[in-house]
Amino acid sequence: MTLFSLVFGSFFLYFSWGSVGSCFVLASLVSLGLLHQNFSSNLNMYFSLNYVSALLVFLSCILCLLALVSTPYEKKAYTYSMCLLALLGFLVLSFSMSNIILFYIFFEASLIPTLMLIIGWGYQPERLQAGSYMMLYTVGASLPLLLVLIWWCEKGGTMNILLLKNLSFVFPIFLTVVIYGAFLVKLPMYSTHLWLPKAHVEAPLAGSMILAGILLKLGGYGIFVMNNSFSMGPNSVSLVIAALSMWGGFLAVMMCLRQVDVKALVAYSSVGHMGIVSAGLILDQTWGVTSALITMLAHGASSSALFCLAYFSYTKSHTRNIPYMKGMLQMYPILSLWWFIFCCINMAAPPTLNLVGELLVSSVVWNYNYLLAAVMGLMVFFSASYNMYLYSSINHGFHSNYLSSGSELKSFEKLSLVLHLMPLLFVFKGTLFIL
To answer: Which whole-number Å values give the CA distances from 266 to 342, 360, 366, 381, 397, in the listed order?
Structure first.
């Protein structure tokens, strides 16, 4: 309850940037206290927390703080801070609901501050089209889910997630697709991903960080909640969806190799990682859920950091075109070092959290189908390829004429990159992910 007080109490204050920062810092520190192994807490009939939601609440708080830290001071405004704070509030509520209808409401409400960030602080006129794509894809896929949830709650006589799982019902193929579809668009799975690169390219820095770091994880958490509420388990439909997720992840990784826009490349890499998450969750095995949780945490921190690095490099070169950013190593060696660190983390080099997640999900996929395991192996290989392409294209070679000389990194930029490493240190706390 302390966390809710910190988040929502600030809505009623006319605050300075110091108080906004203090609110985010305190919320991040309080959320650390939620990280206990195998814990579950029912606060009341509407709120509950478990090991998955607590970890995602922590990630929400820390990434909203980092979005605030990474934003240049002159771009900050009262409305901007309110959007970030409202987004954090909706995310915390989404991850903390035990009422399935309220979970759906806050799940959809998180789109509103995100849309405001894209339209209000985007860079190009195409941001209107990007916002429209995002709303049409996500809301259009979610409305059929609302009808299923209302019908299921009426049938069960309760809206509580923990009580709905006691109902025994065999879902037909159509309902299974509807239930999973809303969250697969949010993740997104390849073929429902067209809104994501557009939204990332047009969004401001904070919008890209929170979209990649947290909002995509709402889709993964939604699949986790549906599996718990409906006791669906692996069936023929879920196996087909898992196969499409893995194959789509491989295609997204291949798309990364032909991108020239650095933000589009990082966006497509998110689609590849979320293919692993959706496969692990839909197969609904203990190792699969554990691998999805680990991958969500690791990807949330690493993709957010890559968007930060893309923005910091943009301020040096004034372009997002990868060939025009080359030679960064000659002029900004510290920035190149950070590119190397987070590209290694993104490609799942040992001993990073991404590696642990990919190893766990590969064992689960191997048990179901050898061909899917082969696709998984190709995805891992080409994931390393596009990360090496990203690092070498930006940092090696003779420096581009587009690069402007200046200071290496500002203090807030260094602080942001260092703090992005904090969630990734959970690789040394492996018991946190034992289900």
So the answer is: 12, 23, 27, 17, 21
